[in-house]
Amino acid sequence: MRRKALLAPLLALCLALPAFAQQVRILVQSSPLAGFQFYGGKILWDEMREGDRLALIREPDNPHDPFAIRVEWRGEKLGYLPRADNREVAGEMDKGTPVGGRIGKMATDPNPWKRLRVDIYIGL
C-alpha cells in the first residue's frame, strides 16, 4: 500500500518533467579562471558572490585560441576558461548545447589561478 502512495507523486513528477526541462542542469566541469589579474575581477570582487551566474561567450575567431570561451559577470569580462579545460565545452557550444556557468568558489588567494572557480553546466 505504501508503495502505491509513493508511486503516484513520482509518476506526476515524470509527466511534468518536460515542462521543467529548461531548469535541469548538470555540472560537467569546474575550472579556474584564466586571466583574472588582467580583467575586471579585481575591481568587481566585492560585488561578486558564489553562485552568481556567469555568461560564457564562445570566441572561435580568437587569434590565441580557436576554442576560447570568454567568461563574463554582469556584462564585465573576467577572463577565460583555461586552454586545458575549454576544448570539450567549446565543442558542445558549437553544437548548440545549452551551456551555462556560475561562480563555484571564490578565495582570497595570492595566486590568481586560485581566486575564482567557474562551474560549467549543461542544460537538459
Keywords:
124 residues, alpha+beta, 3 helices, 34% strand
Largest sheet: 6 strands, antiparallel
Shape call = globular
Number of separate structural domains: 1
Radius of gyration over alpha carbons? 18 Å
Strand order of the largest sheet: 1-6-5-2-3-4
Reading off the top of the CATH hierarchy, the class is best stated as Alpha Beta
Mean pLDDT score:
86
CATH fold description:
Alpha-Beta Plaits
State the separation between the terminal residues, measured CA to CA.
Answer: 34 Å
Low-pLDDT parts are none
DSSP helical segment count: 3
Q: What's the architecture in CATH terms?
A: 2-Layer Sandwich
* Percent range for β-strand residues: 25-35%
Q: What is the total tally of β strands?
A: 6
What is the oligomeric state here? Answer: single chain
Helix vs. strand class: alpha+beta
Secondary structure: helix percent = 25-40%
Order of helices and strands, N to C? HEHEEEHEE
Outline of the structure:
The protein has three helices and six strands, in the order H-E-H-E-E-E-H-E-E.
Structural write-up:
- A six-stranded antiparallel beta sheet has the order 1-6-5-2-3-4.
- It has a single domain, classed as Alpha-Beta Plaits (2-Layer Sandwich), CATH 3.30.70.
- The model has no long low-confidence stretch (mean pLDDT 86).
- With 124 residues, it is α+β, with helices and mostly antiparallel strands.
- Helices cover 25% and strands 34% of the residues.
- It is globular and about 40 Å long.
